[in-house]
Amino acid sequence: MKSLRAPKVELVLAQFRRAKGRVDVPDVELYEDLLSLYNKNNDAEADPEVLRRLAEKLQLVGIAELMQESLALHEMVSASGGDPGAIFEKMSNLLKEIKDFVQTENPNLDAPAREKNLPPSSSSAQTTAVGNHKAPVIPDDFRCPISLELMKDPVIVSTGQTYERSCIEKWLEQGHRTCPKTQQTLSNPALTPNYVLRSLIAQWCETNGIDPPKRPSSSQPSKTKFACSPAELTKIQILLCKLSSSNPEDQRTAAGEIRLLAKRNADNRVAIAEAGAIPLLVKILSTPDSRTQENAVTALLNLSICEDNKGSIISSGAVPGIVQVLKKGSMEARENAAATLFSLSVVDENKVAIGASGAIPPLVTLLSEGTQRGKKDAATALFNLCIYQGNKGKTVRAGVIPTLMRLLTEPGGGMVDEALAILAILASHPEAKSAIGAAKAMPVLVDFIGNGLPRNKENAAAVLVHLCAGDQQHLADAEELGVMGHLVDLAQNGTDRGKRKAAQLLQRLSRFVEQQKRSQSQAEAQAEQSLSQSRAQQP
After folding, report:
1. How far, in Å, CA of 141 to CA of 420, rounded?
2. Burial per residue of 236-274, b for 16 or more beta-carbon CB atoms within 10 angstroms, e otherwise
3. Which of 204, 240, 470, 501 is 20 to 30 A off residue 312, Cα-Cα?
């Protein structure tokens, strides 16, 4: 086996050296160290001494060197013109192991200032010791494939892969026209913000007590240069004149056409906003004409897709009008109002403003009584808003827990994923924990841990972790419902997060069961002693 693998290890070593621009004399120990890591099972722990020697000999002892190495490896694969295949994956894994070791050994390494509070990443252990603390593992899906760091501003390229904006922009600026990870040719250089992943990263940070990564000002997308023709610009100006008229029919027609234009492409979204449409659309949100109202809120939804337009919509005072549509509009208008609030809430500071605007109760109402699409729009908005701790209590007080429990048990189960995700993000809040307990959620959660889909199992376990924290009755209920067997299976076969939650619960339940046994033994001993004393006193 070793003879088959050795040529690839030589290639890995040669590629590390080539990327660093060095030519070294043969180093048998370096070769053997690389070989041992290459042949190592993915689940096995790497020898720290091996990692230390590799980091020193390959001169990968600082964050700057590690990031430069990662970029160099991607460039090398691109220049090769071939399929990177398994060899590239192995090289990336080798580099990741070295990087994890270096950061663990030197937690105050020369990372950029904005990364000082981030935990070191690791793919081979569930927690990494840093001083006297256990730093949570950064999930691989949250790390940029180029820099291997937690992403601050994740963007999607045309192949569907996600990267940190600054890293992929640097890659493109160097003249590359391929996806670094797949080596597929990019059909276009457009970078689309991955709002869902950004929200998931923020939730993960909040759950693990880490400040969510802030997007550097240097990586904020610049104003898009729109490419509308003079005729199209003239058409937009005409529509804005109709939008500002006092004729209800003109307003309805203009709002409808702006809605369609804003949906069509990014150039239109920028041009419409820069022409001054947003304040006019906000103004007619309060119109009594339901169709005009629907067109206006949907036009704002489509405009909000453009990053720069989000701030303009908020600063134009749109949120109260959108909330009013969410309360009183037609069902389609309510759905699109919820979707607009979700789109705006991907900007962290907007979560606070939207939560304070009274948007949460009507979102909960839509989650309860809307169409399937409306429920999903409401759920995504609520999930995103609850990433901000201050919105959790408001959401619980709006009655979301009974609604979520109903969605978990209704026939068809079309909202199970969303309901469990919201429960999981709320469960850390004291009011939510109390409400979940009062809703008799334990049997439902245990059933999902045993029989749900992988993501649902991990979310149900996450809820149970909070529910059982310091609560003997809930621990007893969970143990009586047979959760132990389900947790053992989840700890072995679940997602990474599911395994961690299962391990936490198993530890708590084991302590609880052991304590119960001790208490029972003591009670039996006391009873036996009392019986013996009673017999001794008999004549």
Report:
1. 20
2. beebbebbbeeeeebbbbbbbbbbebbeeeebbbbbbbb
3. 204
Would you kindly state where each structural domain of the chain is located, as residue ranges? 39-78+91-103, 140-208, 440-529
* C-alpha span between 23 and 452 (Å, rounded): 54
pLDDT digits (tens, 9 = 90+) for 485-530: 999 999 999 888 889 999 989 998 888 888 877 777 776 667 677 7
List pLDDT tens digits, range 244-267: 999 999 999 999 999 999 998 888
8 A C-beta contact, residue 326 and residue 359:
yes
Count of C-beta atoms within a 10 Å radius of residue 365:
17
What's the CATH code, domain 140-208?
A: 3.30.40.10
CA distance 406 to 150: 36
Backbone φ, ψ for residue 190 (5° rounding): -65, 140
How far lies 419's CA from each of 379, 414, 445, 456, in Å? 7, 10, 12, 9
Amino acid present at 96: K
CATH code linked to domain 440-529 = 1.25.10.10
| Alpha-carbon span 237 to 246, nearest angstrom | 16
Which of 123, 136, 129, 122 has the alpha carbon at shortest distance from 107?
129
Which are the contacts of 506, defined by CB distance < 8 A and separation ≥ 6?
A: 484, 487, 488, 491
Q: What is the Cα–Cα distance from 71 to 148, expressed in whole angstroms?
A: 10
User: What is the C-alpha separation between 154 and 161, in angstroms, rounded?
Assistant: 10
Answer yes or no: are the C-beta atoms of 513 and 532 closer than 8 Å. Answer: no
